[in-house]
Amino acid sequence: MVLSVSDLSVARGGIPVLEGVSFALNPGEALVLRGPNGIGKTTLLRTVAGLQPALAGSVEAAPESLVYAGHADGIKATLSVEENLNFWARVFGTGDISAAIAAFDLGPLAARPAGALSAGQKRRLGLARLLVTGRAVWVLDEPTVSLDRDAVAMFAGAVRAHLAAGGAALIATHIDLGLSEARILDLAPFRAAPLAADDFDGAFL
Amino acid sequence: MIALLTRDLRLAIRAGGGFGLGLAFFLIVVVLVPFGVGPQSALLSTIAPGILWLGALLACLLSLDRILALDWEDGSLDLLATSPLPMEGIVSAKALAHWLTTGLPLVLAAPVLGILLNLPVAGFGWLVASLALGTPALSVIGTFGAALTVGLKRGGLLLSLLVLPLYVPTLIFGAEVARRGAEGMALTTPLALLAGITCGTIALLPFASAAVLRANLR
Description:
heterodimer; A: alpha/beta; Rossmann fold
């Protein structure tokens, strides 16, 4: 088991959004999170990635095994595609970026400043970062935003290759990735009960 | 961390990186002061150490909100926070990059601008020494302020208000070293205090900045 989430409750802006979420990921497995807007998919993923504390419950993963990719790609506009990837490769202590460039067909764009890329190309660069990190568990928030159909297939291929190599992926998405082997978890049943009416005044009466 | 440092330095010298911002501001302030004060070389040489220190401090302040805000906006900060780099290392690398792109050019430019203010010859060495010793503290304290205000839109004003009081001890002792140096007086005490402030901030503030940044990323 590479990631185990048990009885997790998460809050956004101080308001609980999800309660009692439990799931586990084994090597080679992908889990797709679904749910309407505002259900707390992003909050859940940020909690799993360790960017914010959980209200209750626990997230268990091997140290330094997770890599998070959020709505923003963390791309520097004045650096070239190659320099952006090289930076993350050095941060994560891996050297080779050629596999990542090939997987997302960034070869023709390698020397171009990232600021000159289209939205879809930027996203491909952001996703290519996952490959250079060498981490086992991908935690992805809406990875296919602004990708065209070919690029979605490219992404699905990359995820499949990652799973085949013993990795795991936790993906929040609305569209069908064509990953038939992925399990689907609908978050709607875990919606947190609304807070009891604020009894602030009552304490003084 | 070296990767982060080299990336920040590279970003600073690329287009729109703001490398020359602090330096240009410093230049403008120091060049304009003699026009404002008038042609009194004795008065100018008296106020020269203080003006140079004040100019350097304000030039430093000008570029503080860029330290973390840009990385926050494009999401790099989230990704860095989940990377193998410790948060303390991230803020230290950021502060060092800020010093190399803002503080160090100020230190190097100060003696040239000292000529414009009729700084006594004996003061040049001590001016450079005090700036070299004091500006790292400005960068480290500034990074702490930037971490405090990182999530705020247009947090520049709040950042200045938070950071300026923390800059006062460095300004007092830095300008004192430069002034005493120019007048040929004993300066061991302010020099030791300036060095103490810088060493203390470098040793302690990265931990505070990292803790604040973790809370702000939630």
